[in-house]
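Reopening this one. Same input as before:
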Amino acid sequence: MTAYNAEKYIIECVHSILKNDYTNFELIIINDGSSDSTEELINSLNDKRIRLINTEHIGNANAKNTGITYATGDYILFIDSDDLFASNILTILTNEIEQSHADLFIFQWALFQSRVGESEVSPQGNISIDGMGTAVWNKLYSHAIIKQISFPKDTIFEDVAFSAQAFLRADQVVFIPRVLYYYRQHKASLTKMGHEPEEHLDIITDFSCLIKDVNSLNFTISSAELSQIGILIHKLVLDHIKSILRENEMNKNTFTVLNDLSCFLKQISFQFKPVYSKNRIENLKAKYLVLLIRLHLYRLATLMFNWKNIMK
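Same output, byte for byte:
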């Protein structure tokens, strides 16, 4: 768990872990330079299974990498400091490990706001690179795989390719059709925050790591997996383009970032077919939007995006 000024929710989060029936685990918390009472609250719990690592503020990607270096277990879970585990998650996952000894387990998750059971949506997740979700918190990774990869340093969208890299390395992947993780929706969530245009370029760094793996001679990748990777990359980059069009003022800096993202998509189109959606109409609309940006028709791209919410 990484924690940055997490005093509002961290006790509830930690309690959701400690109350599990399975007790043979270590909880590594990286206090990422918090300036509030996060450290004091964690220390007040006085539980030997908790290992607190205090750092200066280094950001989520670097903090996660730091946590991995301290981990000693055979398997690793991630949890955000404002979310919750199901009360039986560790028992269920341990039983699954004993049955299959798989390298990667994917499980379902649901949204909540103030309390679990309120405002939930349909469970999310499946056993494919483009459908398992990019978040690392609905997965259990073997330490053997984790030590081969890392989160791209100094990035803020560090999760987007990490699980795909693990998936490619896994000899066996198991899907557990049960909700074991609860993601809290609130205004301060990273995914709800706006970003400066240039911050979106982090996704190029993240996916470049994945493409490097794909091109490695150490991997035998099926055509289905290549297709899934292509969909993942195109869909996520498109999501970032849409976020820029929705959140940022159209100026020279914004245009430069949009152009960089579209150029990245053009570069990878020789290796990955440009599929943004499995829906033919949605995929066609996405292609037109990216084409307008590639032609530097940024104003027209903005109009297309906003017109009757056509790209919603």
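So the earlier flakiness isn't reproducible anymore. For the record, The chain has eleven helices and eight strands.
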